[in-house]
Design a protein that fits this description.
By secondary structure, the protein is α+β, with helices and mostly antiparallel strands. Helices cover about 35% and strands about 15% of the residues. The protein is built from five helices and five strands. Helix 3 crosses helix 4. The longest helix has 13 residues. The relative contact order is 0.13.
Length: about 160
């Protein structure tokens, strides 16, 4: 039975409509609809414009075909506003865990994390890095999630 169904399916897909196994005969309207039923059309091909080098003969088409490239998209020349990530000093901070967290969250501070920490403790604030807003917001949130919590603020440059 299974082989018969597959055979009928293959024949139906290939356009043969003569084999009917256990199916009631089609009426006139159904037969007409089945005869006009087609598979979905293939997707349209993309068109590429080709320009030929005339070669000076005036008739065109005598030279090799050259594909004309589409113009590139214009880049946005507007600069992204930068923001400062500022470490706030706190009496409860301990130097080693804060410096390790600073390097873990902001890898660019590897050699200067201790200096930034000491400056924040001494003056109350220390500029950590200047980055685009989204990156600065990410750094601020990650520092706030550290244990112990590290306070930082974001200021537009």
């Amino acid at each position: 039975m299974r082989g018969t169904i597959w055979t009928a399916l293959v024949l139906l897909l290939s356009g043969v409509d003569a084999l009917r196994v256990g199916v009631a005969p089609l009426c006139g309207a159904q037969r007409a609809a089945a005869a006009t039923m087609q598979l979905a059309p293939a997707p349209a091909k993309t068109k590429t414009r080709q320009v030929t080098d005339g070669g000076g003969s005036g008739k065109g088409g005598s030279g090799p075909a050259a594909i004309v490239a589409k113009p590139k998209l214009m880049k946005n020349t507007e600069e992204v506003p930068m923001h400062k990530v500022i470490l706030l000093g706190d009496e409860d901070y301990e130097e080693e865990p804060v410096c390790e967290a600073l390097v873990r969250v902001i890898p660019d501070l590897k050699g200067e994390a201790k200096e930034k920490y000491l400056e924040a403790q001494k003056t109350g604030k220390s500029l950590l890095i200047v980055v685009p807003f989204e990156t600065g917001e990410f750094y601020q949130e990650q520092l706030a999630r550290e244990d112990p919590m590290i306070f930082a603020e974001l200021e537009q440059e």
